[in-house]
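Quick one: structure for this chain?
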Amino acid sequence: MSDELEELRKRKLAQMQEGIARQQEAQEQENAMEVQKEVLLKQVLTPEAKSRLTNIKLANPEFATQIEYLLLRLYQTGQVKKIDDQQLKAILLKITKNKRDITITRK
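Got it. Here's what it folds into:
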């Protein structure tokens, strides 16, 4: 009986260790992809545009992530070489044209 219990404990421990190893591997891959994305964004964006994107990321991280992937896709497909602040503003205006209606009502 105790041999079966000990064997069960060993299997459970092995499963937990495998799960932890898979999580660590997934985290390392995610970190590597994030670093690669940042390196590409440095190549694609001018310092002013990068600063604007950083400000957007502070205000709305999900939106900034969408923009980053859009910019990288534009770069990888050869549609843009280097994106300056004016080009980024134009891209943002096209994206947010229909999405952002802010109204302030005062009582």
